[in-house]
Amino acid sequence: MTARQPTNLMPSQPGDRILSENVGALVLGGKRVWVSNLFVYSQLIERAGWKDAGMKQMIDSRSFDLVVASRNFLGNKNYLVLGADRFDPEAIQALAQTYHALPITP
Asked: Residue 7: which pLDDT band, with cuts at 50, 70 and 90?
């Protein structure tokens, strides 16, 4: 699922454990918000030295029923090395090992 997808589809997603860039879709869909701002979170890890062990453990143990992103981080090797604006490299590597990307059409 992409973060640009209409918010009215979020309530139909099974489970409450959804990690999403689109917090508004989670809130409007009645889902729990795990990280309110993935961009700020990733910057705190990359630049301020915060530890990402808790998030990585949740990804490694498949704690999330669904991960919603605006692009396919798993399909680009540069993201695995450099990270992205909303996910640090370790999180993307963990996602690549644990989840698979599904294309969503509007």
From this structure: low
pLDDT at 6 over 60: no
**What is the pTM assigned to this prediction?**
0.76
Distance (Å, whole) CA 30 – CA 102: 23
d(CA 58, CA 64): 7
The encoded tokens of residue 58 equal 């949740």
DSSP assignment of 38-92: HHHHHHHHHHH----HHHHHHHHTT--SEEE-SS-GGG-HHHHHH--SSS-HHHH
Distance CA 19, CA 66 (A): 6
pLDDT at 4 over 70: no
Q: Which helix (H) or strand (E) holds 18?
A: strand 18-20
